[in-house]
Structure prediction request, 172 residues.
Amino acid sequence: MKKALVMLASAVAMSGAFAQSSAPAAAPANSAASAPAAKAGHERNVEDRITYLHTQLKITPAQETQWNAFADVMRSNGQTMGELFQQRHANKDVSALDDMKQYTAIAQAHADGMQKLVSAFDPLYNSFSPEQKKLADVTFHQPGGAGGPPHRHGKGKGRAAPAPASDAAAKP
Prediction:
């Protein structure tokens, strides 16, 4: 059970690659004043990742239509995950069953969002030059998942770790 929760937490953390979804730890989750600030910070983080990827992948004017579709899915996923995390932080007094149901909703939203993201990324990736494909392959294998700037929480704060040398290094 504990291993399952750790794996789920890791999956949820990966969603941060597409959107920073929780408010800063110092801000009270149920404060009316902190909600707009948290939302503004969350939206800024999503936009930062979109800007970073646009630059990193060297998106051309001819690729803007596919890029915009991909970026819109990132924004939508970020909004969904942000709302779910805000609900989770607001519900302090929940039973173990309700807690598991919240994790389930977050994990399902993450899986659904990833499917949408893959569908939007497929035509974009197929439009890439060989150089862009190499950039995407390296960028998306970085610890930030989608190659965004390092997460602003947890290990590796403020610095990107190198990608694993092989798949063997990533196995538990």
In short: Residues 96-127 form the longest helix (32 residues).
